[in-house]
Structure formats: C-alpha cells, structure tokens
Design brief:
The complex is a heterodimer of chains A (about 500) and B (about 55). By secondary structure, chain A is of the alpha/beta class. Chain A has a domain of about 230 residues: FAD/NAD(P)-binding domain. Chain A contains 10 helices and 24 strands. In chain A, strand 15 and strand 16 form a beta hairpin. The longest helix of chain A is centred in the first third of the chain and has 24 residues. Chain B has a domain of about 35 residues. With about 55 residues, chain B is mainly alpha-helical. Chain B is built from 3 helices and no strands. The chains are: A alpha/beta (about 500), B mainly alpha (about 55). At the A-B interface, helix 7, helix 9, strand 24 and helix 10 of A face helix 3 of B.
C-alpha cells in the first residue's frame, strides 16, 4: 500500500486528493494535511466583503467530506520535508504541527511514498511595512478579502464608512469618504480579486445611496489597467482585436473610479499609504478605507537531508515556491518562451514530489518586467489560481496514480502546461440577480505563446470578454457548482475544473 | 447633454478611453439579450474548458 500526502486543501490540493482517492480506491492511502478546518470558495469572499453573502455561504467543514471519501485528514501545518528520510531510515517523511483545538502545536512525523505540495501561498503582509502586524498577519491599517474571516472584517469596516457617508449626506456636511482598493506591494498578484472588490463596493454604494459621497480610487502594480498579471489580453470586439487596457479603462471611467498604476506601495500607516511609481517618483495617498492585497510567498517550508543538513534550496526557489520542471534559467524577457513553463509539475530532484496550484515556482513573470529608476521592481507576478490550479491538481493526481499503479518506470506523466491551457474567469462588478454585472472572460492560453500566435500571443478566437448580467448569472452558478463539486456530491466528477 | 458622456470631462485618464452609450449600457442588463449572451458565453467557456483538459 502506497501513501500519498497532499499538503494543502484548497482548490488544487482538494482536487488532487479527491481524484487520487477516487482512482486509487482503498488499495492505497491518501492523506490531506491542511491547517484549515474549513474549505473556502475564495472567489465568493468578494461578496462576503460587501455584505452580500455570509461566511457560512462560502465555507464548509472538511472533516465530514474527507471521512466520506476515505481520505485521512490531518488538521495540521506541514513545516518540514525530509525527502531522503533520516538516519536509520530511507523512508521520506514530513513533519506536521497540529492546529486542531486541544492538540494545537503537537508535532508528528508522517512518512510518504508520494508528496504533493498544494499549500497555496503565504499572505506576505509583512513585506510592506504597516500592511502586516509584524507577526505575519494582516495589520490594522487596511483590510483584505483573501480569507473568509478577512472578508467578514472588511465588510464591517466598509459598512462603517457607508454609515459615515450617509450621515454626512443627511447632515449636509459634505465630508467625503476616501476608498482605496488594489495591491499592497509592487510584486503582488491576484489583481482580479481587488478588481472585483472595488466594483462591488461601487455597486453597493449606489444601492445604499452614498456613491456621491465616496471618492473611490484604484492603486495597482500593473503597468497598465487590464494587465491582470498576464500581460493583458487581446479580444475581438466589433471587428477589431483590442487590448484589455481599453476595456478596463472604460469600466473605471464609466464608474468614476480613478486609478494609480505602476505603483509599489512602500509603507502603510493609519489612513495613509506611501507609494513609488515606475518613473521613480514617490507619493502619498490618504484613505478612510483601504483593501490592499498582500504579495504572495511560499509558505516557508524547510527541507532537510538525511544527516539533518538544510536542503531547502534544492526543493524551493528563493521566493519559497517549489521547483518543478520549469526552465528557471530563461534569462532576459526577450528570451522567454511558452516552453519555459512546467508541464508535469514534478520536482526535478525528487521524482515522488510534485507541486500544484500557487505552490509551484513559475519560471518567470508573464507580464513584462518593470522597475523604477530606483531599482524597485514593480510588476504583477503570474496568477495561478482558479481553473489552472484545478486542472494542474487533477493532472498531478493522474500522474501520481499512474506511478503508484504502474510503477515509476512505466508511468505516464500527465501534462498541464499553462502555455497550452486556457482559463475562464468571471469577475464580478456588482451582485444582483436582475441588476448585477460581471466581466466574463476566457483567455487561451493563459501564458502567451508568441511562436504559435504571433501578434497577441493568444488565440483570439478563444480569448474574449464582455460585461453584463449574464456574467453575473454565470458567477453565481459557478459559486454553487464548485461548492457542490468540492462537497463530493453525486456527479461531482462531471463538473470540470 | 448626454449623461453617459459626462465622465469624459472628469479627468484626463477618463478622457482618453471609451465610454458606453445608453444603448450599450441598457443591453448589459436587458434580460432577453443577456439570456442569449448567457448561452453564448457558456458555449465559449465550455470550448475553452474542453481545450484545456
């Protein structure tokens, strides 16, 4: 009996573990190690953050789902990987630290035959002074929607701002509230979440009758609006192939949302941020309410060799993400190719270790690298969430199952390159079954391939976007569909990632 | 005065982009048109999903 350990229970880890268990049956063991007791459909945190959903709508307990599936669930934080075993044993193992109530802090060694790292990111709030609390958690100056609890807190703060705006309007004082949404560092990813949040705030402010009392501003590390960490995209509209820049700018202008782009937020204080622009100039921006996405980093695993020596740099890139079969020495932007991107997500040193979703180290950015004259890098890092995370998780599960069933020599490693994979993305711009809107987009492939598609790098027949109520309906259906799938209800395998 | 064009004058950022007119905005929440778009978008997304697996 082989044992597969999946570290992480998010979109990618949950997909890997559930498919692996389904394909392996009871002949082999699947273990999930995740510090969280609940699964969270993160895309809907946006609606929790504006009070249109409650936390219970976007989370559910993992334990009964894994019990039903026959998966060994450990509510714990994986901290160390020992891929060569220890003195006296060649069996690889990981060290986990329980986060379960009553057992918190208790450590345990778990041996494995195959290991999948799907931890997702560490929310690196402390990368920007004042954004974090200095202890790795979110600080008190801004809010976030990265977790369900963060989103609940964000909504409480937002409602206070709306209340102040309402009172100012009633009293005729004219005191306006400043709302700032975007990225909290020059190397952030996940602009899409902030994009959704700012337009949902705008939509809710209109519904609450306080939009005219709010100054809503966007701040982002993107070199242009609509970059989204993918170098933007081109869509066919009205017979033209046009850049997402034009559509994003149009949406911001239509909703009266000003923007600051090419910005590295360097410091956050109560009611104020300091930021540096791509031209090297430094500025300040005041706010009454700010939601700034933190940069992502690897979760901070340590890896040790048999003799106890540190070998973290063998398994992980300097940013803490796991090395896989990507080309990490591609060099300058001009040399970047679609083929640099990983296909199997297998670690090059240990063939029984894989990384899926955000946990794998990308070979380089997708967007063109930029930095200010002061040397500050200001560019979005590649998105690896949502559909790609699910597809990669499933491909990795396939590979591991084949290796277990057929042996490593005969196994077929399944491929899921982001340069050959598309993504469907629905970005909410306001919730409402009859008056909501969302930008529905597909992009193919996620990583542009300029050799195959000279010009835009993508197939414009399969790269499109439009905003409307239909997008909102799709977003709402996806919310229920993916929670249904994650709960492993009848027919869950028929729902694509 | 066309209300939907007002934002062009609010700042230079807005002035250099495009703004939807009354018709385009109305179509975004027109239930019949959006039902049709719902079908079209779903088909397009399914094709991309199929190509990606």
């Amino acid at each position: 009996m082989a044992r597969l350990i999946v570290m992480g229970g998010g979109v990618s880890g949950h997909t890997t573990a559930t498919f692996a268990k389904k394909w392996l049956g009871n002949d082999h063991e699947v273990v999930v190690v995740t510090p969280n007791a609940q699964w969270n459909w993160i895309p809907s945190n946006i609606w929790v953050g504006v009070g249109q959903m409650q936390k219970k709508d976007v989370v559910f307990p993992l334990a009964p789902i894994y019990e039903k599936a026959g998966i060994d669930y450990r509510q714990a934080l994986a901290t160390e990987i020992h891929p060569n075993g220890k003195e006296g044993s060649d069996k690889p193992y990981i060290v986990i630290q329980s986060t379960k109530e009553g057992k918190a802090g208790k450590t345990e060694e778990l041996e494995y035959d195959y290991l999948v790292n799907a931890t997702g990111p560490k929310l690196n709030f402390d990368a920007t002074p004042g954004l974090g609390n200095g202890k790795g958690q979110m600080g008190t100056n801004t809010v976030s929607v990265c977790t369900a609890d963060h989103a609940v807190h964000a909504n409480l703060e937002l409602q206070q701002v709306f209340e102040k705006a309402r009172k100012a309007k009633e009293n005729g004082t004219g005191e306006r509230q400043k709302i700032l949404v975007g990225t909290g560092h020059g190397m952030c990813t996940c602009q899409g979440a902030a994009f959704e949040y700012i337009f949902n705030i705008e939509h809710e402010a209109k519904k609450a009758g306080v939009r005219d009392m709010l100054d809503i501003k966007w701040i982002s590390n993107e070199a242009f609006l609509g970059d989204f960490g993918m170098g933007g995209l081109h869509m066919k509209v009205g017979g033209y192939a046009v850049s997402s820049k034009l559509f994003a700018e149009s949406l911001y202008a239509e909703r009266n949302v000003e923007w600051i782009i090419g910005a590295h937020t360097s410091k956050v204080e109560e009611g104020k941020i300091e930021y540096e622009l791509l031209d090297g100039t430094k500025h300040e921006e005041e706010f009454d309410f700010a939601m700034l996405i933190p940069p992502f980093a690897g979760v901070g695993f340590k890896a040790y060799d048999k003799d106890g020596s540190d070998m973290t740099d063998v398994l992980f890139a300097p940013n803490g993400f796991m090395k896989v079969d990507a080309k990490y020495d591609a060099g300058a932007y001009e040399n970047w190719k679609a083929s640099d991107w990983p296909r199997t997500y297998q670690n090059p040193t240990f063939d029984n270790i894989f990384a899926a979703g955000i946990a794998f180290a990308p070979p380089h950015l997708i967007s063109k690298p930029m930095s200010s004259p002061n040397g500050t890098p200001i560019n979005p890092t590649p998105p690896r969430t949502g559909m790609p995370a699910g597809i990669i998780g499933k491909a990795v599960a396939h590979s591991v199952c084949d290796m277990i069933k057929n042996g490593k020599e005969n196994a077929h490693l399944h491929e899921a390159s982001m340069a050959e994979m598309g993504a469907a993305c629905v970005a909410s711009a306001g919730k409402g079954i009859l008056d909501g809107t969302a930008a529905a987009m597909t992009v193919y492939p996620v990583v542009p391939d300029f050799e195959k598609y000279p010009g835009t790098g993508r197939d414009t027949d399969y790269t499109f976007g439009e905003i409307g109520l239909a997008g909102h309906w799709i977003k709402h259906i996806l919310h229920h569909m993916f929670i249904y799938k994650a709960k492993l209800k009848p027919g869950w395998t028929l729902i694509p990632e | 005065m066309k209300k939907e064009e007002l934002n062009f004058s609010k700042n230079n950022q807005f002035n250099l982009t495009m703004l939807p007119g009354k018709f385009a905005k109305a179509m975004r929440t027109c239930k019949i048109w959006q039902f049709f778009r719902f079908m079209v978008i779903n088909i397009k997304m399914l094709i991309v999903v199929r190509k990606s697996h």
